[in-house]
Design goal:
Largest sheet: 8 strands, parallel
Number of strands: 29
Structural class: alpha/beta
CATH class of the largest domain: Alpha Beta
Strand content: 15-25%
Strand order of the largest sheet: 11-8-7-6-5-4-1-12
Number of helices: 24
CATH superfamily of the largest domain: Glycoside hydrolase, family 3, N-terminal domain
Distance between the termini: 57 Å
Radius of gyration: 27 Å
Shape: globular
Number of domains: 3
CATH topology of the largest domain: TIM Barrel
């Protein structure tokens, strides 16, 4: 063989062994070779748009332009003003190597067309619905210049005191994983190629933000690796497997190390174990906040965050202000900076920004694609499937010719329908509950209205809750007068309206600022002034339907005992009032089911269905018994369990059946159950499959969701619902953190919720 042939053969072997570089790799390699170290560090810096207040800092009006011209910005977030973003992009292209900016925004549940809050959408248990709702959000955001959304939030939350429970998918890791995938597909599509209507998803908050002690925002997390892998991490993993393009690190610490510099979370798990190849951005000012954790000064924490796997610093200026010095001092390497910069450049390449920096800046799209009738109609459809009927003694559905008194501080509050983290410029156009009812009835003059009560007896507390957010952003904001009408007079008016009506619809609960970020509540009961209203209405003897607007589970013991019906509507978005009326009058049969357990008392928190047994277990619904794991003053069980929700019809479950009583570790078994609609109305039922590993080498939960199906069943019809179980559904992370399916017996349970299940035993060999 000649020398030339030997060299050619070696080149072929090298090409086969290493893989041919993609066009993206070649492009990024070339760009990196031309950039200065300062320009590379600049790509790792993310700022909020001028004037947008984000966490601990406000960007001055000309600060971004100065930094951009100096090559010190990789992206901006906080606005969807197409004209402003276009001008900023032009400046970016004129600076340095003309690298386009990426534009991010908190698009949490819809953009201009507001969808139900994420916790509400999770109660639909309808993954197609969630994906399609997210597609609309992506379409609207991308039409207004945004190409990167800080969503989905997939944090598992077991404590309803935590305000951001409203932004997630509930307490279960399996369901949370399915929801995470639906969001990623909705934002990014399923092809891996970003069209003009696709945006980059940012999975947050990585990781364990929802596990904060006492439900207090930003607080410490204290769990071990086995517990987090089994109980919390699956949604993050599922999002990575679905192809999510970016992740956002969380504020909390894990194992004594802040998440933003935690190499176990970012490198070992996310990248090496799950194969994530996108970039990781910090939450707002999270890098500078590591100083308060007691880890080091800004230079130290910035260097450690970069080396641990963080790629982009949001609003701390830690990277852009200190990494060059750390490089000179040997605390970080050029390879560390290049690696992070490459990930940012790759994201921009995948979005198509190098081909067309103005791809998402097409003003003509706004009128044609944003807040359209089609989008609002779909928002109504989503909201119809996101209302949980918690109680009904037969008063629902209402008759459209009835005399109805609509009362309560949330009855005619359009903006309250949007919920937390809604930045729609059309917020005031959302449909109130009162308007929805008036639009639905035979004669609107039969509908009376009274505001009924304050929110809280404490005026200062109510002012802080209602206007604290806007005062944070606008310190000179003139707060509207509160409590100008005496509470007693408001209640008297509501009672008079109730006495003249056939039925009362009491609209109470939380206003948006009572949940969401920075809105943890130590007391999650009904606000005191609203409770006074409910008690006065109860004294009239009239039937009362409580329409509950909330972003979290509340303690509702008195309400459950005294209200004739409770419809938990959460915060339903742009078409809230119409969708709520659709359910109240029976045009839509409610089908939603809880994804979070509702406690009886706040002292039960954290509360979650998939808990473990103790050595002295106590049945959840049995009264106190000494020397067992229980409370003296309340049963262990939630008021409303995970998976619970009523319908205007009834469903009867048969006994679950297995295709075989034994299963090999590499085999599968089918589980089937007959479900009959025994009522007179067509309905949708969410059939749930749970497992329990009876004996394992590590302790296992009493019950774990491993499958669900939402099925349409006509009145009188019986449907057979079938699930397939494999070792994957029966596996868990053991004490050595190995993913194992251990031989032995498993209870296989099927039912309408986590409490009311029927079981059969499967043996795994």
């Amino acid at each position: 063989m000649t020398k030339r042939l030997i060299l050619a053969a070696a080149a072929i072997l090298l090409l086969v062994g290493c893989g041919q570089k993609s066009e993206m790799d070649k492009f990024v390699d070339n760009l990196l070779s031309e950039m200065t170290i300062e320009e590379k560090i600049g790509q790792l810096n993310l700022h909020s748009a001028s004037g947008f207040i984000s966490a601990l800092r406000v960007t001055e009006e000309d600060e971004n332009v100065k930094m951009l011209r100096a090559g010190q910005l990789g992206g901006l977030y906080g606005t969807s003003n197409v004209e402003y973003l276009t001008e900023i992009q032009k400046i970016a292209l004129e600076s340095g190597h003309g690298i386009p900016l990426i534009f991010g925004l908190d698009v949490i549940h819809g953009h201009e067309t507001v969808m139900p809050i994420p916790l509400a959408m999770s109660t639909s248990w309808n993954m197609d619905l969630i994906e399609n709702a997210t597609r609309i959000a992506a379409k609207e955001a991308s039409a207004m210049g945004v190409n990167w959304v800080f969503s989905p939030m997939v944090d598992i939350a077991r404590d309803a005191r935590w305000g951001r429970i409203a932004e997630g998918g509930g307490e279960d890791p399996y369901l949370g994983g399915e929801i995470a995938k639906a969001y990623v597909y909705g934002y990014q599509g399923r092809t891996g190629i970003f069209s003009d209507h696709d945006v980059l998803a940012c999975v947050k908050h990585y990781a364990l933000y929802g596990a904060a002690e006492a439900g207090r925002d930003y607080n410490t997390v204290n769990y071990g690796r086995q517990e987090i892998l089994n109980g919390f991490m699956n949604p993050y993993k599922a999002a990575a497997k679905a192809g999510a393009g970016s992740y956002m690190s969380s504020f909390n610490e894990f194992e004594g190390i802040p998440a933003t510099m935690n190499s176990y979370l970012m490198d070992d798990l996310l990248r090496k174990s799950w194969g994530f190849d996108g970039f990781i951005v910090s939450d707002a000012t999270a890098v500078m906040e590591e100083v308060a954790h007691g880890i080091g000064d800004l230079q130290e924490v910035s260097a450690r965050s970069l080396k641990a796997g963080l790629d982009m610093d949001m609003n701390s200026d830690g990277f852009v202000g200190t990494l060059k010095k750390s490089l000179d001092e040997g605390k970080v390497s050029k390879a560390d900076i290049d690696r992070a910069c490459r990930r940012i450049l790759e994201a921009k390449y995948k979005l198509g920004l190098f081909d067309d920096p103005f791809k998402y800046l097409k003003p003509e799209r706004v009128a044609a694609e944003v807040f359209t009738k089609e989008n609002r109609d779909f928002s109504r459809k989503v909201a119809q499937e996101c209302q949980v009927l918690l109680k009904n003694d037969g008063v629902l559905p209402l008759k459209k010719n009835a005399r109805i008194a609509v009362v309560g501080p949330l009855a005619d509050d359009s903006s309250a329908m949007n919920g937390t983290w809604s930045m729609s410029s059309h917020a005031g156009e959302s449909i109130s509950i009162l308007q929805g009812i008036k639009d639905a009835v035979t004669n609107p003059s039969n509908v009376s209205y009274a505001e009924g009560s304050w929110l809280f007896r404490d005026k200062d507390l109510e002012e802080n809750i209602k206007y604290g957010m806007i005062k944070y952003f606008m310190p000179n904001y003139a707060v509207p007068a509160l409590h100008t009408v005496p509470q007693e007079r408001m209640i008297a008016e509501a009672v008079a309206k109730a006495r003249a009506a056939d039925v009362v619809v009491a609209c109470v609960g939380e206003v948006p600022n009572m949940n969401g970020e920075g809105s943890s509540r130590a007391d999650i009961s009904m606000p005191d002034a609203e409770l006074e209203l409910l008690k006065a209405l109860k004294a009239t003897g009239k039937p009362i339907v409580m329409v509950l607007t909330t972003g979290r589970p509340l303690t509702l013991l008195w309400e459950d005992e005294n209200m004739n019906a409770i419809l938990n509507t959460w915060s339903e978005g742009s078409e809230a009032g119409h969708a709520i009326a659709d359910v109240l009058f029976g045009d839509v049969n409610p089908s939603a089911k809880l994804t979070t357990s509702f406690p009886r008392m706040v002292g039960q928190l954290p509360l979650y269905y998939n808990h473990k047994n103790t050595g002295r277990p106590h049945p959840d619904y049995e009264p106190y018994r000494k020397f067992t794991s229980c409370y003296i003053d309340v049963v262990n069980a939630p008021l409303y369990p995970f998976g619970y929700g009523l319908s205007y019809t009834t469903f009867e479950y048969g006994e679950p059946r297995l295709s075989a009583n034994e299963m090999a570790a590499d085999g599968s078994v089918k589980v089937s159950v007959d479900v009959k609609n025994t009522g007179s109305m067509d309905g949708k039922e969410i059939v749930q499959l749970y497992i329990h590993d009876i004996y394992a080498t590590s302790t296992r939960p009493v019950k774990e969701l491993k499958g669900f199906q939402k099925v349409d069943i006509k009145a009188g019809e019986t449907k057979t619902v079938e699930f397939t179980l494999t070792a994957e559904e029966l596996s868990y992370y053991d004490h050595e953190l190995n993913w194992v399916c251990e031989p032995g017996d498993f209870e296989i349970m099927v039912g309408p919720n986590s409490r009311d299940t029927k079981a059969v035993v499967l043996t795994v060999n």
